[in-house]
Amino acid sequence: MIFQDPQQVLNPSLTIEQILMEPLIGFHILRNDKERREFIRLELPDVGLDNTYLPRYPHQLSGGQRQRVAILSALLVEPALLIADEVVSALDLSIQAQILNLLQTLREKHQLSMLFISHDLHVVSWLADRILVMYRGSLVEEATTEELLRNPIHPYTQSLLAAADLFEGNLPTEGIGWGVASDLCCPYAELCPQSTELCRSQRPPVQVLANGHRVACHCRQKGV
């Protein structure tokens, strides 16, 4: 897993080499430390770093370089799924683009499945094959990126895309925020411009539509 702020994750008392050795030792990868060090040196160029970074400490690296170390640390154990949690939100825009391009390249090279968590819809729409829209921890809509951008169904998704200028057409921009949560109703009911009494009294089930498009919305059932 890759976290938002590598400075909070990388141990400041360890060198970069020691940090990268930890997952290899923890998962019993390779036979000894000599082989592990050689493996690390071979993998460093994949994230745009070289051997000169190994004796350094995290505070001696830039934010982008620390994130590259965190990415490599996650990749060294050859995961089937890589979870990236807001990995570029703390970086400058120019560095964000570099890290996103790096993730895309690594995903293709290693044939990785990646769960990319972000509030930036422009980044998500560029990187993701499939998008899950969450509101207060609940799934409200899921579809391929192309389908979701072309045909957003849930009112919350519509508001998000309209606010981000990612939809060509008329969509409501109101309703973005936090209402009062309840397990007994739709989590979006209080702010939804299409909310009905049913929405405020019963949580909607997730419906499976054409092309694997899924949405949790009573208005969809009633054809609103």
UniProtKB/TrEMBL annotation:
Question: CDD domains of this UniProt entry?
Answer: ABC_NikE_OppD_transporters
Q: What Pfam families does UniProt report for this protein, alphabetically? A: ABC_tran, oligo_HPY
Provide one Gene Ontology biological process annotation: peptide transport
What are the ABC transporter domain coordinates in residue numbering?
2-161
Q: Which UniProt keywords apply?
A: ATP-binding, Nucleotide-binding, Transport
GO MF, any single term: ATP binding
Name used for this protein in its record: Vitamin B12 import ATP-binding protein BtuD
Q: Which organism is it from?
A: bioreactor metagenome
